[in-house]
Amino acid sequence: MKTRKWPFIYVGVITVITYIPIIMTVIYSFNVSKLTSVWEGFSLKWYEELFRDRDLKEALMNSLILAALSCSCAVLIGTTGALGMYRAKRQSVAGGRTAGTLGVKAGGGRLNDVIAYVAMLPIMIPEIILGMVFLSIFSLMGLPFGMVTLVIAHTTFCVPYVYSMVKARLVGLDKSLEEAALDLGASPVRVFFDITLPQIMPAILSGVMLAFAMSFDDVVISIFVTGPKVNTLPVKIYTKLKTGVTPEINALATVMLSITVTLILASSVVGKIRVRNVYK
Amino acid sequence: MMDEACENKAKCKEEKVKCCMRSRAKSRSNWMLLAPIYVFTILFVGLPILYMFLLSFLSRAKVWGVDFTFTLDNYKRILEPMYIDMLRESFQLAVLSTSIITLLGYPYGYFMARMNAVWKKRMMLLIMIPFWTSSLIRLYGWIIMFRSNGVLDKVLMGIGLTQKPLKLLYTYPAVVVGMVYALLPFMILSVYSSAEKMDWTLVEASRDLGASAFKAFWTVTFKLTLPGLLSGVVLTFIPSMGLFFIADILGGNKIVLVGSVIQEQLTKGRNLPFAAALSAVLMVLTSLMIRLYRKVTRTTELEGLV
Lengths: 280, 306
Description:
The complex is a heterodimer of chains A (280) and B (306).
Chain A: H1 6-28, H2 45-52, H3 54-102, H4 109-124, H5 127-141, H6 147-171, H7 175-183, H8 188-217, H9 220-225, H10 233-243, H11 247-279
Helix pairs in contact in A: 1-11, 2-11, 3-4, 3-6, 3-8, 4-6, 6-8, 7-8
Chain B: H1 2-55, E1 58-60, E2 66-70, H2 73-78, H3 81-114, H4 117-132, H5 135-146, H6 151-158, H7 172-197, H8 201-208, H9 213-242, H10 244-251, H11 258-267, H12 272-297
Antiparallel strand pairs in B: 1-2
Helix pairs in contact in B: 3-7, 3-9, 5-7, 7-9, 7-10, 8-9, 9-12, 10-11, 11-12
C-alpha cells in the first residue's frame, strides 16, 4: 500500500496542539513574574516554594495512599469477581448439557449478569452522580468523611477497570493449559497460582495502572466525600485554581508531568525487555 | 443384553451424579470468588443508587438533611423554566463537544490504526502522556493560553490576525475547548481499538470489485468501525454533562451545567433531595444512551474502554 503524507500531518498537528498547553505550563513554571501572562526571566523560585509547601506535600501523600489502598481493594474484588463470573459462565455452558437431564439448573447466570452490570456502572454514569450518591449514603450511614469514605468511593470506580481487563483476558485464554495441569494431578489452587495467575497478570497490571491513574486524578468524586481534614492533591489544586493562581501550580504540574513521563517511558522499556525474554 | 443396558444406564446415572456433585463443589468455591464483588457492588453501588432514587422523592428538612415524607416537588422543580433551560444548555454543550470530538477523533483513531507497528506504539505513548497527567493541570495550561493578553492573544496579535485581546477565558468557546481537550483521548482510543481489529483485506476486496475509495470507506470501514465510534460518543457525551469543574475553571460561573447545579445544590443549597432528582434525570438519560448503544451495536461492552 502506498503511504500518503496527509494522515501523518493531520495526526501530527492535533498531537502538537494537545501538547501546547502542557508545554506552556512547563515554560511558565520557570518565570520570575507572579503573573502568568508576562515573561520576565528565568528562575527556580516557584520550585523552592513548592518544596516548602507542607499542605501540598500532605495532599500528595494522601493522594498516593488513597490510590494505593483503593487499587489494592479493587485488585482483590475485580480479579476474584472476573474469575468467578468467567467460571460461572463456563460451567453453565458446559453444565447445561449434562445437568439438563437431571433437572439441575445452572443457576446464578442472570443474577451474575445483573451484578456485573451494576459493578460496571461507576465508570459509565457521570462522575457527579457517584459523588452525589456517596455524599448522601455516607451521611445516611453516619460515616465520618475522610480517608475511609474516600477509599470506598474510589474503590467503586477502580473495580470496573480491573474487572473488565481481567475478564477480557480470561475470555481469550487457552483453557487446555489449565485442563492439562489438572489432568496431571495439580491441585486447583496450584493450577491457579502456576497457570492462571501468570497468564492474567498483565491484565491485572494494566487494570491497576489505569485505576491508579483515575484515582490519582479524580476531583469530582473526591470533592464530595472528603472531610475537612483530608485533602487530596487534585482537590487542593482545584481550590487553588479557583482562588488565586500562582506559578507554584506550574512548578507542581511540571514535577508531576516529569514523573508521569518517566513512569510511562520506564514501563514501555520494561515491557519490551519482558516481551523479549518470553520469546527467546 | 437387557442387563447390560441397564447396568450401563445405572453407571451413566452414577457418572452424572458424580459430575453434578463435582460441579456443585465447583460452584461452591465459585461463590467464594464471587462473594467480594457481590457484597461490594450491592452495598456500595447498587443500594446507594437505589437510595438516590428514593431520596429524589423525599422532601428536604428545614436545616440540613432529609425529611422522610413523599413528594414530587423535586421533579416539579426541574420542570421550572430555569432548570429546563439549564438542562437544554447542558445538553447542547454536550452535543457540540461530542460532535467536535467525533470530527477530530475519528480520523485520528483511523489514521493511527493504519500506521505501522512502531508508529502505533509511539502514538500510543504520545496520547497516554497527557491522558495520565492530571486533567486539572492540563486545563490550567489552557488558562495560560486563553488569559486576556495571554499566549494565544499575543500570538494572534503578533501575526496580525486580531487587533485586540480576544478575552477568551471565561467564555463559552473556552469551555468547549476544555471539554474537547479533556475527552478527545476517549474517542481516539475507542475508534483506534475498533479500527485496529478490522480486517483491512475487506476494504481491498471491495476496491478490487470496483468500489470507489469513498464507497469502500462508507460501506466497509465506516460500518465496521461504528462500534468504536459509538462507544466514543457514549464515553464523551456522558461525562460532558457532568464535568462541572471544566465549566467552572474555564467558564467562570457563566456556563451552568447539570453537574454544576447538582454540585451547588449539594454544597451551597444543601438540598439533597433536589440534587438527587437532578442526578436521577441524568442517570436515566445515561442509561437510555447505553441501552441504545447496546441495541445498535449488539454488544454489551463499550469498545476501547479497556
